[in-house]
Amino acid sequence: MMPAKSTYHDADTICHQFKSDLYVYRDSVANTEIAHETDFIEDTDFIWAGYSDENKEGTYIPHIGNFSLSETNLKWSWGEPNGDKIEQCAVLQGSQSNLLNDQSCHDITAWVTCYFDESVTFTAHDLSNILPEVRIDNHFLFDLDDVVDPRKYSLNNFDGGSIQNLNGTWTLLTKDNQKLMEIEMEGFPIGRREWKSIIGDYETKVLNLNACRRDEFGCDNGICIPKWLRCNQITDCPGFEDEQNCSMLHLSPGYSKDVPTANETEILNIDLQVAIKKIIAMNFDDGNFIAQFKMINLWQDKRLKFKNLQEDMSDNLLKIDEWTTIWIPDYIIFNTKHLDHTKSLPEDKHSSLHIELLDIASSEQANNDFYYDGSLVKVQKLTHYTVEMLCNYDWRFYPFDSQYCPIQIFLSTEKQDNLSINVSVSTLNLEYSTFSIKLMNTTVGTGKRKMVQVLLKFTRNLTPILLNTYLPTLILTIINQLTNYYIGQDMFEGIIMINATILMTLTSIFISVFNSLPKTTYIKLMDIWIIATFVYPFLIIITHSELHVLYRRQKKRSAGTIRILKRICRMLLPSLFTLFTFVYFFIGYYHYFNN
Predict the structure, then answer these.
(1) Which of 215, 274, 316, 422 has minimal CB crowding within 10 Å?
(2) Which domains does the chain carry?
């Protein structure tokens, strides 16, 4: 039983300060085995029984445990409970009675009984700094082995010192009973409280006394919470102190953000992950493409210390004003118009810096913060970029071409000899217009200036071009050829009209094709096809015109020439065009599949 009265909810806090729970009575105080005398309890005193109906009106359930009042020796006094929603907590009156009354959980105070499994060790944090002139152990044991009056409870350390209640004043004593500090209050002085120094400057000192382990955070009221609740953006301490001073970064003296390591021999490893998400545009006239990708840098800076980290990396987000004070790998995207530097790109809106804790068990506690060495932590910088890249498009084999475009990234930092880069690149089923995009290879330069080149292959889908250009022109050429089998005076005008119409149709197709392609100084494979299919009907027109002239002369010596021209029209021209078509598509597809 605690040496002071409190409200019901404060009683729960008092027990938690001692790493215990509010005791739930099953019988009277006299019939319960309690590790102290109870003679000080008056018959009119209330004792919290550990039952409440705050969760469900009329149903009193124990504070801990899974049982009902009917399974205990406790009974309700006559006419109780009668407090409705005003009186919702059960009390025992005096130490001899097993009868319950319902009382207000907030308006009355009653004696508090806590349940202990073992002795509790308290720590007076920073005691050596508060009292530098005195050597005293800052660990105090709350031991219940002896049956004592709870009003005479004390905390004893291993050097013989103690914290005792002397006539209502809690006093810190040495083993020689020299008074060091004191505070006047009821109950134990657990938590962060102002003590009066009795030696030295006699000033008020703030002493934080709690039973928290090294992996727990101590609230100002003495309650201990897991260290993962420190700075998790959810208030767990009544005074909100668990969400105050939540900077994650601790810079050691002499730290420089301009260099990656502390000395010339140390090597810092950077894991660079590039994920190309989307090709937004391809500008063939200007020779560029716009890529959307993300870069993830992972590294360990052993010069740093981090504090109050969470298990989940997504919760460890470093603020921009913090990560601008540490070394971060910077890059130049080389194949851009202005040699874009990652610092000049809009990183503030598209970047984030997270801290990944590699060993969740290892931490050092100081001033109620939990510190992690840089060797136990990985820094992750994630940045999304949308950048216009230069690409030297090669159109010689259009439309059987494949375009190879690089993304060239140079590391821009001092002391690159102290850096090692491991690169991984991924793509997400990239497509743009009629192109399918494939990652070909990744090259890492290991010279004095570290460089990464990601090579992309843009492969054209031939189906639209075959259907829109090659198939119509091929059909028109076949129609041209069919006119060669209707030679004669009466067919001449029709043959000329058909071929002239085909020439005009081909002209409109070719103009459309030319306008869709960039202007080059060299001949493209498509140009050869256009020239061939355009010349073919022109040759037919010339041949038929010559035949028409020969027929009108009606001379015997023209008969041999007419036979030769007919053979040219009916056999030679189609044979040559067929051979040309075969060679043309063989070269085109060979380049398409083997380039």
Answers:
(1) 422
(2) 5-115 (3.10.100.10), 120-211 (no CATH), 268-460 (2.70.170.10), 463-594 (1.20.58.390)
